Amino acid sequence: MFARAFRGGGPLAPLLAGTLAACSASGPSGNAPGEPTQTRVDGGAGPDASGPGPSLAGGSPSCPSDAGSAASRAIIWADGTSQTAGMTVASGTTVVIAPGANIGMGTAAIVTVQGTLVAHSACGPHAHLAWPSGAAATSGIVVAPGGTLVLDGVDVTGAGAALTVLAGASAEYDYAKIDGSAAPFTVAAGGILKTTGAAVVNTQGASSVSGSLVAAYLDYNANGNSGIVAEDSATVDIRNSKLHGDGPDADMLISEGLTGGTVRVSNTEIYEVHCAFHFGPVATFDISYANIHDNAYGFMLYGSGPAGGTMKYSNVDASNEVAFDPAGTNGTITFDHCYIPGGAPAAPVVFSNPAASPVAGTGPM
């Protein structure tokens, strides 16, 4: 079972370590006969020992029976709380968003987290942070160096920059929805964002990652905009997710100057975008068990590093134009046990063990 304990420090840690246990759900695992052991998001062999997260097809969390009471140890944001001017959660301070609380935010409100901001609402009515229409581009939640964010079941609506993680900060955002943001995720170099079971909808612009993004069971609708842009030395690691748009208008997974980073994608479906992958350049990439379909292009490969990249046990099907468009200087790119109608492009692509029909077991488990 997928279990997560409260990770923040401070006075709430002893109280919440047991009672803010993670929501969990079980899902299928294992490999088809003859297929290699699938790789966990953390690089270990086989399915994640903690188990998969909730299924995108409708898995639901199982919940603790008691969330405890933290009223005497923290600041509580209850239903009806207003943060019209924004606020700073100072170092050493813990703020708890109550389950089901509706929090009104001001047009330019920024919540800066230097201490700990936590919520556990996935197992009941979600909490809701709501910015008004026309909110400032900078409005949203900023996790500062040394800060910790653990939001479970907190929907964020209307924020210009919904969730920003700065260098030296860590954040976890699970089982909730970001709605109408121009920058759903922004992760600076040295920052870490982990998310499980999140949905991104009505997106107005791209997410930007220069640090580390680890996502599972993410349903990300780019809504005709660029999707997730990896820059600098970013690590983008996505599994068991759906990444999509509303037609072939913009690219989904994009690298820009990614000379020291990597993109890893497994058991993920990418559809209704211009390019599923637009790499130019990317240090290295590893794609497995992906189902890529109904896009203008599968890949644009405009400069992988000397290590090149691999794609295995995946489908690149029903592209409106071409499956691949390699150009510039690339390391060796290997496609192994993949179904790609029309075959492989010219070198430096190595096409091994091509599949004659769509590979089973691709996409989210």
Verbal overview:
With 365 residues, the chain is mainly beta. The chain is 2% helix and 40% strand. Mean pLDDT is 81; it is low at 1-55 and 65-72. It has one domain (74-352). The protein is elongated.
What's the average pLDDT? 81
Counted up, domains total 1
How would you sum up the global shape? elongated
Residue stretches low in confidence (pLDDT < 50, at least 5 long) are: 1-55, 65-72
* Strand coverage percent: 35-45%
Helix tally equals 1
Strand order of the largest sheet: 1-4-7-10-13-16-19-22-25-28-31-34-35
The first-to-last residue Cα distance is: 15 Å
Helix content: under 10%
Rg calc: 21 Å
Fill in the keyword field for this structure.
2% helix; 13-stranded parallel sheet; mainly beta; 1 helix; 365 residues
Short description:
The chain is mainly β and 365 residues long.
Please write out the topology.
Blueprint: H1 13-19, E1 75-77, E2 82-83, E3 87-89, E4 94-97, E5 102-105, E6 110-113, E7 116-120, E8 127-130, E9 140-143, E10 148-152, E11 154-157, E12 161-165, E13 170-174, E14 177-179, E15 183-187, E16 192-196, E17 199-201, E18 207-209, E19 212-216, E20 219-221, E21 228-231, E22 235-239, E23 242-244, E24 253-256, E25 258-266, E26 269-271, E27 275-279, E28 282-288, E29 291-293, E30 297-301, E31 309-312, E32 315-317, E33 322-326, E34 333-336, E35 349-352
Parallel strand pairs: 1-4, 2-5, 3-6, 4-7, 5-8, 6-9, 7-10, 8-11, 9-12, 10-13, 11-14, 12-15, 13-16, 14-17, 15-18, 16-19, 17-20, 18-21, 19-22, 20-23, 21-24, 22-25, 23-26, 24-27, 25-28, 26-29, 27-30, 28-31, 29-32, 30-33, 31-34, 34-35
